[in-house]
Every structure is written in structure tokens, then in C-alpha cells.
Amino acid sequence: MNSKLKLVKGDITKIEADAIVNAANSSLLGGGGVDGAIHRAGGQAILDDCIAIRNRQGGCKTGEAVITTAGKLPAKYVIHTVGPVYNGNKAEKEQLLANAYSNSLKLAVEHDIKTIAFPNISTGVYHFPKPRAAQIAVATVQDFLKQNNSIMQVTFVCFDDENYSLYADLLQLT
Ligand code: ADP
Fold first, then answer.
1. Could you tell me whether strands 65-69 and 153-158 are parallel, antiparallel, or unpaired per DSSP bridges?
2. What is the mean pLDDT of residues 101-109?
3. Helix and strand tally (H, E) in the chain?
4. Which pLDDT belongs to residue 2?
5. Is residue 137 within 6 Å of ligand 1 at its C-beta?
6. Looking at 11, 35, 143, 161, which residue is catalytic?
7. What is the percentage of the chain residues whose pLDDT exceeds 90?
8. Mutation test residue for ligand 1: of 29, 60, 159, the one with most atoms within 8 Å of CB
């Protein structure tokens, strides 16, 4: 396994990284799944920052990313990215999922973030097929780390057994 990659099973709100990534929706106002968990555990400060971003730029488009405080979480920042809803145009959705990972990493570099943790973006209520989402996540992160030396650790945090075993298989090969 690439020494900068790490795999963890569990709850991303517990991770002590410089940044954790949220699988947000374009409203930035919170939702279910990992988004709900992050806002619940991090508290009002995260929502306040999200509302300020909304007022400035009107939310966050699919495949893009924005950054806020992490409030009460052990992480320093939350990077909110919006994965695609998996319906129609497979190639476009795959590109948008890759963009969600690479734009989160770009924003991390701009904020001097060295350690970052990702959930399995779009594989919950957005219904992206888990095996393909895992391939895209790992390939996009690997490509980014080849071009950029400033990120020291990327943790994939899997909440469910299926994602964990998919990532375990993929990461053994890297
Ligand atoms: P999306 O709308 O992008 O599909 P979801 O939050 O519905 O986002 O699901 C994305 C992934 O996050 C799913 O694989 C889900 O199992 C996982 N997840 C849910 N809660 C947590 C959590 N607390 N920590 C890490 N991952 C989580």
C-alpha cells in the first residue's frame, strides 16, 4: 500500500486529521448520512460558516468543494464537497465523483492541510455503485499524490462493511 494511504472502519467525526471531508449537498445546509453526523457532532459553528459561504457564492456545485471550521470536532477543518447523484450519464457522474475528490485535495493544499480523511462520497443516498466509487476514489487520490508532495496522509473512512472490504482489496494492490 502507498505509505500515505490509510484505511479505517468507523465514524469520520472521530478522526483527528487536519481536515475531514463531508459528503454534503449543494445547499450546504446539512442533510442525512455523514453530513448529518458531521453537523451534529461539530455543532453550530460549521453551519454558520456554511451559511456565510452560501450568502457569498450560493452553495456548492456538484464536484466542487468549500472549507469551514470543524467546530467541536477533533479535526481542524471540514471540507464540504458535493458528490454526484447517480442517475443517468454514467461517464459524467464518474468525472464528477473524481472532481469531488481532486477539488477537496486542491483546497486542502491551499490551506496547508497535511492529513485528510474522506468518507465514501456518493455511496449512500446518492446511490453511486460502491465498487466503481471505490476505484475512482483510490485512483484519483493516488494520481493527486503523484503530482503533489504536500499532503502526508489520506485516510479512507468506511462506515459499512461492503465499502471497507472493497477498499481493503483495492489498497492491497497499490
Ligand atoms: P451521499 O449523499 O454522498 O451518498 P451519504 O452520507 O448518504 O452521502 O453516504 C456517503 C457514505 O457515508 C455512505 O457510504 C455512508 O455509509 C457513509 N457514512 C454515513 N455516516 C458516516 C459517518 N458518521 N462516518 C463516515 N461515513 C459515514
1. unpaired
2. 98
3. 5, 6
4. 77
5. no
6. 35
7. 96
8. 159
Q: What's the pLDDT tens digit per position in 31-63?
A: 999 999 999 999 999 999 999 999 999 999 999
Beta bridge partners of 59: none
Q: Which residues pair with 66 in a beta bridge?
A: 80
Residue of 56, 126, 58 whose CA lies nearest to 97: 126
Q: Which of 119, 132, 60 is nearest to 93 (CA)?
A: 132
- With beta carbons less than 8 A apart as the criterion, state whether 91 and 38 touch: no
The response to whether residue 40 sits with its C-beta less than 6 Å from ligand 1 reads: no
Residue ranges of alpha helices (H) inside the chain are 33-42, 44-57, 90-110, 130-147, 161-172
Q: Is 35 a catalytic residue?
A: yes
Q: Which residue(s) pair with 172 in the sheet?
A: none
CB 24 within 8 A of CB 51: no
At a CB cut-off of 8 Å and minimum separation 6, what does 108 contact? Answer: 18, 19, 79, 116, 151
Name the 3-class secondary structure at 157.
strand
The domains located in the chain, with CATH, are 5-170 (3.40.220.10)
DSSP 66: E
